[in-house]
Amino acid sequence: MKILAMETSTLVGGVAVVIDGKVVAEENSLRQKSHSENISPFVDHCLLKAGIKLEDIDVFAVGQGPGSFTGIRIAANAGKTFAYSFNKPMVTIDSLMLLAHQARSSSKPVLAAINAYKNMVYMGLFDVRGDEPKYIKGPDAVPVRELKNHIQQECVMVGDGWEAYHEYFPEELSSKISRDSNFPDHPLASTLAMMAEQRALKGQTLDWKSFVPLYIRASEAEETKKGILISPLK
Question: Looking at the domain assignment, is residue 111 inside a domain?
């Protein structure tokens, strides 16, 4: 099975090709504002490296968020266009689950937290035992000062929410959290591709019209219009 995966919901955007359970090509960028510029050449480079054409792809995989509103739409629009053009199915997986899956060797529950800006994080607490992570809590958008109310057990934290806000965590939260440098802090296209292949093999696909982004919260423009203010950290 040939999978083309596109993940652009966070700072790291990427494209990957998996063929029969093996990552054969991957391109990543650390510049969020350039995802729209990079996605087309990344697709071309990955297909060339894999030695296949776009029409050879069996399933198109897309990261559905949460994360950057603009970023989510970049991969979503590309994936939907390809799926429609070649009449192929899609698989979509949320970015918090991708983060948790990348920490699946953890012996503790995994807290995935993506910087949602305005002193908030997108969070999900996962049980990573089994083939796929399972939500214990979330997905949700939580003010950083309230995160302690959602974590009642020891866990491993992944995601750029740590780098952005950990210095503001109270001791009662910090004491429950550990970190592992082997676990990436951004969802990767290669992870998406591998998980998508397993879902596709089980028949867990959808058509392009059924794709629904996971936004969780309103856009910045909508929040500004409603007068939603930044929650203070202290």
Answer: yes
Please tell me whether the peptide bond between 66 and the residue prior to it is cis, using omega within 30 degrees of 0.
yes
Yes or no: say if 122 and 165 are a contact pair by the CB < 8 Å rule: no
Per-residue pLDDT of the chain (234 residues; tens, 9 = 90+): 999 999 999 999 999 999 999 999 999 987 656 788 899 999 999 999 999 999 999 999 999 999 999 899 999 999 999 999 999 999 999 999 999 999 999 999 999 999 999 999 999 999 999 999 999 999 999 999 999 999 999 999 999 999 999 999 999 999 999 999 999 999 999 999 999 999 999 999 999 999 989 888 665 544 444 444 556 665
Hey, which residues does 1 pair with through a beta bridge? none
Q: Single out the residue of 174, 185, 209, 182 nearest to residue 92, CA to CA.
A: 209
Look at residue 112 and tell me if it is in a domain. yes
Contact 19, 31 (CB under 8 A): no
* CATH number for position 27: 3.30.420.40
Name the residue range of residue 101's domain.
96-178
Closest to 62 (Cα-Cα) out of 45, 47, 74, 50? 74
Count up the domains in the chain and report the number.
Answer: 2
In a domain, 233, yes or no: no
Q: Are 64 and 92 in contact (CB under 8 A)?
A: yes
